[in-house]
Design goal:
The protein is built from 24 helices and 32 strands. The protein is an alpha/beta fold and about 725 residues long. The protein has a six-stranded parallel β-sheet. A four-stranded mixed β-sheet has the order 30-31-10-32. It has a four-stranded mixed β-sheet with strand order 11-24-26-25. It binds ligand SPQ. Ligand SPQ binds next to α13, α15 and α17.
Amino acid sequence: MVRQLCIIGVGLIGGSIARAARQAGLCQRIIGYGRPDDLHNLKSAKALGVIDDYCLDLATAVQDADMVIIATPVGAITHILTALRPLWSAQTVYTDVGSTKGNVIQALATVFGDVPDNFIPAHPIAGAERSGVEAAKADLFHNKRLIITPLAHTRTDCLGQVQAFWRGLGALVSSMDAQHHDRVFAATSHLPHVLAFVLVDMLGHRDEQEEIFKYAAGGFKDFTRIASSDPAMWLDICSANQKELVPLLDKLQCELDNIRQMLVEDDRQKLFATFMYARNARQRFLQQFEGIMSKSSTFYVQPGGQLKGIARVPGDKSMSHRSIMLGSLAEGTTHVKGFLEAEDALATLQAFRDMGVVIEGPVNGEVTIHGVGKHGLQAPKNDLYLGNSGTSMRLLSGLLAGQPFNSVLTGDKSLSGRPMKRVTDPLAHMGADIKTTENGTAPLYITGKAGQMQGIHYEMPIASAQVKSCLMLAGMYAQGETSITEPAPTRDHTERMLAGFSYPVKKEGSTVNINADGKLLACDIDVPSDISSAAFFLVGASIAPGSDITLQHVGINPTRTGVIDILRLMGANITVSNERVVGGEPVADLHVVYSPLKGIDIPEELVPLAIDEFPVLFVAAACAEGQTRLSGAEELRVKESDRIQVMADGLQLLGVDAQPTPDGMVIQGGNPIGGGTVVSHGDHRIAMAFSIAGLRAHAPITILDCANVNTSFPEFKSIAIHLGLDLVSEES
Ligand code: SPQ
C-alpha cells in the first residue's frame, strides 16, 4: 500500500496508473504534477477523479510521497531529474515508465553522478492510439508486460515494492538488463513505428495520394495503424534509442536490397522461402503470445459414464518429429500426411525452419518439406527453443554435433530439468563438443564439429529410443561405423524411416549400425495415429462398464504395443483388426469392450514398450481387482515430471492405495476411486490419465495445470467428450 503517490505527467499512462491503483486499492492519495502549461490537463484529471489533487510546484508535489512515478515523455527525463535532485529522499521509491531505458540510466548517472539505488527503471508494454488523461483506463496494464531493468546496486526493498505495485495493477512483471531491453524494443517496437510513419509519409506525398488511400484495403490499414501514434512521443523514443535503432535500419536496408534483387531476377524460390519463413514465424509468435496469455488450463471431470463410438486420434508424436528431421535432410520434396499438429512436433518443425528449411503447412496434418540435403542446414540465427520436447532436444543434439555451425538448444522449465548427459556423454566419445549446465541439463551449447566426429560402438546403459536415435543421427556425420546396442528393444521409428528415405541402416540382433556413406531421398510419409494417445481410451473403455469403442488407424509397431499386451494380461478385451502396413509401419483398428480387470505383476520386458503409457496404466491398475506391481521403470522419474511420484500423489489423494517404489509402484486396486483436486505438474500424460480416472470415480475430479496436453494431444478434450467423458475445461 502506497500512502501518497506522486505522478509526474498525468497523460494516458500516468492517468491509467492512477486509475488502476485507485481501483486496486493500492494508494491512499494520488497527487499529479505538471508544468504550468499543463494546468488544463491536471484540472481535467482531478475533475475526472483520476487524481486527488494536483500541484504545479514540484517540491510540494513530492513532499509527502512514498512513491514517485515519472510518466513524462522520455525526452523530458533529464530535465525532471535535475529538478528532483535537491528534493531526493532515501525514504521514497522513484520509478519511471519510459520506453527506452539506456537513456534514463544515462540521465540518472549524469544528474546524480551515479544511479540512485532507490530508482527503479520500468517500462509498461501498454498503450493506446488515443493519448491524454481522458483516454486513461484502469485496465490498460491488465495482463500486459511490465519490464524492470534494475542495476546491480538497486535496493531490493524498492525493487520489491515496484514489482508488487505493478502486479497489483494486473501487469505481468519481468526483468532484464537495460541494454537488452533497448535492443529488443528497437526491433519489435521502434523499428515498426518508423516503418509505418515512413510508408505513410512516402505514399502521402505522392501525387496520386487520393487514389491510393481511396483503394487502400485492410492490409494497409493494419500495417499503418501505429502511424497514428503521437509523433512527438515517437520522435523522443527514436532519438533516445538511436544507438540500437540505426544498425537495425541498416540491416533492414540490406534486406530490402535483397528482396529487390530477388524481384529483379524473378527468383520465385527465394521470394517464396522468405515469405513462407516470415508467415510461419509470425504464426509461431502469435501462438507463443497466446500461450503466455492463457497461462493455465484446468480440467473438471464428472464421475462415471462410459465410452462409446468410433474415433481416430491424431498422428504419432515420435514419427512426426522424425518425419521433419529426415525430410529436411533429404534431397527432394517430402510430403507428410497425418503429422501431429501439437506443440512438441511443431517445436521440431520450427527448429528446422530456423535452420533454413522451407516447410509448408501443417494444414490438416499435411506438411510439405523442401529438403536441403544432408549438408544443407544453415546456422540458426538464434537459440533453438524446443519447448517441452525431450525428443526434439535429444535427437537434435546428435544431429547438430557434426554440423559446420554452432547452435544452442533451450527448452521450458520441465525440459531444462531433464537429464541430457545420457546423450552428451556418448556424443563426447564421438568427438562432439556440447556444454550443459553443471547438472547436465539444458541449455545445450553445441560447437559444430563437421568432419571431426568419429564412429563408436556404444552399449546403452538404459533402454532409450532417444539416445539410440541421437547417436544414429550423429553417426550419419561421423567417420567410420557407429553401432549402438540396446539392453532391451525400444521404438525403432528412426531405423524404419531412414530405410524409407533409402538411407542404409543395418540391424543385427539388438545392435544397429550406421555410417556417413549415404544420402536421404525424399519420400511420402503417412503417420499413423499415436498409440500413446489411443492408450487413454484403451484404458477408459476397459475400466468403464458398458463401454464399446473402436480406434481407427492406430500405429501398432511391436516396439510400441506394450500397453495392449499389459492390458490384455490384466483381462482387457481388445481386438486388433484391419491390420495393414502403411509407409513401413504396421497399422490397425483397435476395438475395446469393457471387461473387468485384475491386478498383475507387469513383466519388466514390457516396460520400454509401454514407457509413456504408465500414467494411464496406473489408473487401470487402480480399477483392477487385486495388486498390480510395476518395477524396472525408474526412467519414469525423469520424464516431463516424476511420473511415479506425481501419479502416486494424485492416486492417493483420490483414495487409492498406491505406493511408489524407486523404480515403479505397487497399487492395490478395486476399491472405489474418490474425487478431489489433483495436480498434473504440467505433464500432459498425467493430466489425461487423471481425466480418464473420472470414469470410475464417485465424485468429480479437478485436474490443475493441464495446458501441456497441447504438447502431444490437443484434441484430447474433444475426442474424450465425443466418446462420452463428461469433461469441461477452463482456461485462464
Ligand atoms: O519427447 P519427450 O518429452 O521425451 O516425450 C515422451 C512422452 O511421454 O511423450 C517422454 F516423456 O516420449 C518419449 C519416450 O518416452 C519419446 C521417445 C521418442 O520419440 O524417441 C522415446 C521415449 O523416451 P526415451 O527416453 O525412453 O528414449
